[in-house]
Design a protein that fits this description.
The complex is a heterodimer of chains A (315) and B (372). Chain A has 11 helices and 13 strands. With 315 residues, chain A is α/β, with parallel strands linked by helices. Chain B has a 5-stranded mixed beta sheet, sandwiched between helices. The chains are: A alpha/beta (315), B alpha/beta (372).
Chain lengths: 315, 372
Amino acid sequence: MSNAIEVRALVKRYDALAAVDHIDFDVPEGSVFAFLGPNGAGKTTTTEMLEGLRRRTSGDIRVLGLDPWTDGQELHHQIGVIPQEFRFFEKITPKEAIVYYGRLFGKQPDPAALLDQVQLTDKANSRFDTLSGGQKQKLGLALSLVDEPRVCFLDEPTTGLDPHARRAIWKVVRDLKRDGRTVFLTTHYLEEAELLADQVAIINRGRIVARGTPREIIETYGGPERLRVQGPPELAEYVRQKLGIAVRYESGRLEIALREKGDALRILSVIDASGLPWNGFATERDTLEDVFVHLVGQMDEGVLKSAAPTAGGAP
Amino acid sequence: MNPRRIGGDLSIVAHGYVRNPIALFFSLIFPVILIMLFGLIFASTGATTVTLYAQDFDHSPTSVAFLQALNKTHLVQVQVVGASVGNLSTYLGQNGDSAGLVIPQGFGQNFTAHRPVKVILYTNPQDASSAGTATGALQSVISAFNLQAACGGNSSGNCTPVIGASSLNVGSQVYTYIDYLVPGLIGFSILTSPMFSMVDVTASYRKDGLFRQLSLTPLTRGEWLASRFIWYTMLTFASAALMLAIGSAIFGAHVTFSIWLVPFLIGGPLFFVSLGMLAGTVSKIPETAAVIGNVITFPMMFLAGTFFPVSSFSPGLQLVAKVLPLYYVIDGMNQVLLFNNLSRAIGDLAVVLIGAVIVFALAIYFFKWRDE
């Protein structure tokens, strides 16, 4: 499989500050690539250099074999872009916007079909300034598809959207992949990346700190699988003494690291034999979000959000 | 330049515009309100300041003293024009001036020799107050000179007047305030619609990232600017038609449509669409850009001959008016609509078109939709 995007030793400097500092990655054609990082890490700068909106300081970028800065006109016929917080002419309706883009690109798109694809049919004739944030993003997505692009750049397409709207955009991303298109996705939602992406790269302070499939990243950088059991503090002490292993106790819950799957059965049989009360149990691994927080080391509220609570609790 | 893309963008501009009542109001309705208001207020009146244009064919100490005496009345302000302007009456008519004076050759010699001599005063009967003021000032100075020449210098007491005055009407056509208001308000539309709108659009689209969005399409900066230029030219034609129709039908303006009006209705919007975009490019902050746009627009709105003929301004202000590009648009339209003075109109048009090409080139050069 050839690469839709190739980035080598890419640097973007603003005076002394290296916003992007010698990064390398490839995005195979037909895959979904998630580019993650906290605010100010260099995600949008990188994305805009890939889109041809920003000139790089050094390094090389090829998108479908073209240099985005010098070959922008040609490239823009082959890529679709939704910027963060998509904006458009306020008095124009989604249907008119699609016809407009069709005329710019020399295409004759079917507005009804495109609006149906992004679930915006009911707002086809509403002016842009009356649309909600999610509806505006959906229109941005529809417009990015007018020219039937081979590569779609989606820069935080679901930020601020309600769960229903978010799932609608996820469906479009899956459809794009099914149609063989490449999707370059930046997102704050780690669950989104885990659900949609074939490959993930995490950028922090301008450098890529992890790269691979979500599973590879979790296995490489995450902690071991853990057993969680609800019970009293005495139970934690009992297990420590009986098995001679470390037991973490917090909020009415024991947490024990597992070296191998069979450990869970042994520990549970000890717990059951203790005669002490215990309730549900579950095993769990680090999520991509856990790994992200660990790697970036600077999670703060509002910077990184989870689309849904992480799984856990009794089976 | 791709006509399909320009057409597509033009349709978006048009849709946005007709759905924006404020933009429509200021483009088409506001000038109509202005012409109705000014037309009613100043109907059948002329300019308010009396500037007396004097053509001195004598150039003698006496003629110079005569003009200085007129200035000292503080009723008129003498502005000397050379023989090169040709017939003073025609000159006054073409420039919308209400009062002029011709001092014939031999004025000084005749005066010294106590031989009768006549000066010619041109006034506009429709501008009664200016005519009255100029006549009054002239008569008082003539009386003083006659008194000095005939009575003061002759002890016999034979006070025969030496200097007399003939009074004639200005020009072959009498122009009223409304005649100047029609081209003036067409110029107002040419200036204000594109300037206010383009400054705002350029600054706010950049701030909102809309230009970056458009840069991802095949639309070029030149095509984007071209569609705006076409739109504002269309608005200008609509506004000009309204002004000509209302001015003629309601206020009886003496305007005659000429095909030579068309280049001004194209060159004017090209100049101000480009200038608006250039002003909007200077600052990334829309509010600052708006201030810059206002600093450029407001002096032109009042000093370039939109509401009052430039000839009614003081000589200093007239000089200021002549550095404003809108002056040449309005003066050119005055020449083609009122005076049928094509040679001067072509000069004005050349200034407008050369300026428009320069400003257009600068706007395209400085206006970027991508960041470095």
